[in-house]
Write a structure and sequence with these properties.
Length: 170
């Protein structure tokens, strides 16, 4: 009798674990945008061996505009978190475009998060948590990464955040 009860629970656990990152995106109500072209003489991603190096991306919205402003002056931590989360969605779109399937991601290795900050703003990690939290939501343990969250006095187009990353693939 115990075996009959445990088997369905085991099957449910397998189904939960078997969800692809694309399934997680759908479950989370996230639609990946189309990829924008680089604005200068560079590419969105470079592959070397089993590593992908992604160029910095910012919080571009569906209409092509960016979430802009300085954290601690124009934007709150919550608004910065949302900007970093949007940046994660944009970087997942780059990965999906490059790989075809996000399940080819073995691990997010390193994240460099730049935060457009007022001189007295010191909560850059809380802002970049928006990026990190989304990676873990969509990729599970494969989304956990080493990270730096740096404050800067300006970013291109006055973007609130910019994030680049290194990804290991199968």
């Amino acid at each position: 009798m115990k075996q009959l009860i445990c088997l369905p629970l085991f099957m449910i656990a397998l189904l939960v674990q078997a969800q692809t990152p694309e399934d997680q995106l759908i479950k989370s109500g996230i639609e990946l945008p189309s990829i924008s072209s680089p604005i200068a003489n560079y590419v969105n991603v470079v592959r070397t061996g089993n590593l992908l190096y992604l160029s910095g991306k910012g919080p571009s919205q569906k209409d092509g505009s960016y979430i802009t402003g300085k954290l601690g002056k124009d934007l709150t931590i919550e608004q910065g978190y949302a900007a970093a989360r949007l940046t994660a969605i944009n970087q997942l779109a780059v990965l999906k475009n490059e790989l075809g399937e996000l399940s080819r991601i073995k691990r997010i290795v390193k994240v460099l998060g730049l935060v457009n900050s007022a001189a007295d703003f010191y909560d850059q990690p809380k802002v970049i948590n928006g990026f990190s939290d989304l990676m873990v939501l969509i990729l599970g343990d494969k989304g956990k990464h080493a990270r730096s969250a740096i404050g800067t006095n300006a970013l291109p187009f006055n973007m609130a955040v910019e994030v680049e990353l290194i990804v290991e693939i199968d």
